[in-house]
Amino acid sequence: MRISCYLSNLGLKGHPLTSAAGIDLNLLAVLGALLEHRNVTRAGERLSLSQPTMSGALARLRQHFGDELLVRSGREYQLTPMAKGLLPDVQDALSQVERTLCLPAAFDPAASRRRFSIAISAQSVLALSGVLRRVHELAPRVQLDTWPITTTLLETGHGLLGYDVLIGPEGFRADGDPEVLLRDRLVYVADPANPRLRASADGACRLSAADLAALPHATARLPEAGLVTAALDRLGVTPHVVATTGGWLPLPFLVAGTDLVAAVPERLARRVSEAAGVAVTEPPFGTVELVEVAWWHPLHTSDPALSWLRRIILGSLDSLGSLSSLDSLARGGGEFAPDPLDEQAHLVCDEA
User: Fold this and answer.
1) Are residues 64 and 154 in the same domain?
2) Domain that includes residue 132, residue range
3) Which range, of 36-45, 191-200, 258-267, 340-349, averages the lowest pLDDT?
4) Which of 43, 196, 219, 326 has its CA 20 to 30 A from that of 320?
5) Per-residue model confidence as pLDDT tens digits over 173-209
6) 66: left (phi > 0), else alpha (psi -120 to 50), else beta?
7) 229 exposure class (CB count in 10 Å sphere: 0-12, 13-18, 19+)
8) Which CATH number fits the domain that encloses residue 125?
């Protein structure tokens, strides 16, 4: 959000503008930043204000509300119940201020040196190359900074304002109206020499429910991993998990050369199967879909630069469509179809 626009209009660095009740309305922007970031230093950086100025403003806000607003918990700060209740109202008020005082500036991609910040899951990063290519074509001076998704982004409002766009699994956040970007599905990866791995009549590598019950599993510590557990449970299989990772990406490399199996998104499996030295196999539980969506803070909705970036992201990823193998499965087929992201071949499982 372009906070500097209305900071200037409200005169935070000059003469204070007060309401009829004698309240300094300049504190609204400060209050919003403090509630969003829960950190005096980061909130000050957001507003280009010094820490002493922010600390003084926080003291005035505490005096006005008769509440601490932010309380220290270890090395972090937490919002008091009153502050949590204030947050949505403050966000709405700031949004109204921006619409009233800040006329949207035209965005010229070719001349812009804008630096966009995107929080993104590892799964979506694999499809981001098309976005980067398109952004570079249209806006060669623009920079995209990507950051891993953190647990703080699960909390409504907190943290999201610090990013221009958040791209992650559907259901990661409960708020907002996210835009669907990608659809994927779960497949299994295994070492080609795994004795339980066999080629079926159609040439595809497959593992049965009995195989998955007998083999050790590796899994990711992600909410979506629960979809695997649920799908196996419907088959009466309780996986014997012997290894876990922080995300999907390490799993194919962890599986290679072992008797481990792991469920991963198909796009990832297609991309890294050759490098990791693993075979990709159909799951016995049919299609379990993974959906990646995009969120943005409501205060970013009217920013022309961010509207442009969102159009680029949606346009680039829409050109990929759903995985063609999903379409094939819907028609009753079972083989992997070529992926528009990557046409490299999978290692095949042993025929014996």
Assistant:
1) no
2) 114-352
3) 340-349
4) 219
5) 656 667 888 889 999 999 999 989 877 666 677 889 9
6) left
7) middle
8) 3.40.190.290
C-alpha–C-alpha distance, residues 133 and 127, integer Å: 11
Q: What is the CATH number of the domain that holds 9?
A: 1.10.10.10
Number of Cβ within 10 Å of residue 183's Cβ equals 16
Q: What is the mean pLDDT of residues 267-289?
A: 92
The tens digit of pLDDT for each residue in 295-352 reads 887 777 778 898 899 888 888 765 554 443 333 333 333 333 333 333 333 344 544 3
pLDDT at 258: 96
Report pLDDT for 276.
94
Q: What average pLDDT does range 148-158 have in this prediction? A: 60
d(CA 255, CA 65): 56
Is residue 117 pLDDT above 90, yes or no?
no
Domain check: are 276 and 344 in the same one? Answer: yes
Regarding pTM above 0.85, the answer is: no
What digits encode the pLDDT tens for the residues 328-338?
333 333 333 33
Domains identified in the chain, total number: 2
User: Mapped to the 3 state alphabet, what secondary structure does the chain carry?
Assistant: CCHHHHHHHHCCCCCCCECCCCCECCHHHHHHHHHHHCCHHHHHHHHCCCHHHHHHHHHHHHHHHCCCCEEEECCEEEECHHHHHHHHHHHHHHHHHHHHHCCCCCCCCCCCCCEEEEEECHHHHCCCHHHHHHHHHHCCCCEEEEEECCHHHHCCCCCHHHCCEEEEECCCCCCCCCEEEEEEEEEEEECCCCCCCEECCCCCEECCHHHHHHCEEEEECCCCHHHHHHHHHHCCCCCEEEEEECCCCCHHHHHCCCCCEEEEEHHHHHHHHHHHCCEEEECCCCCCEEEEEEECCHHHCCCHHHHHHHHHHHHHHHCCCCCHHHHHHHCCCCCCCCECCECCCCECCCCC
Single-letter code of the amino acid located at 302: S
Q: What is the C-alpha separation between 121 and 173, in angstroms, rounded? A: 13
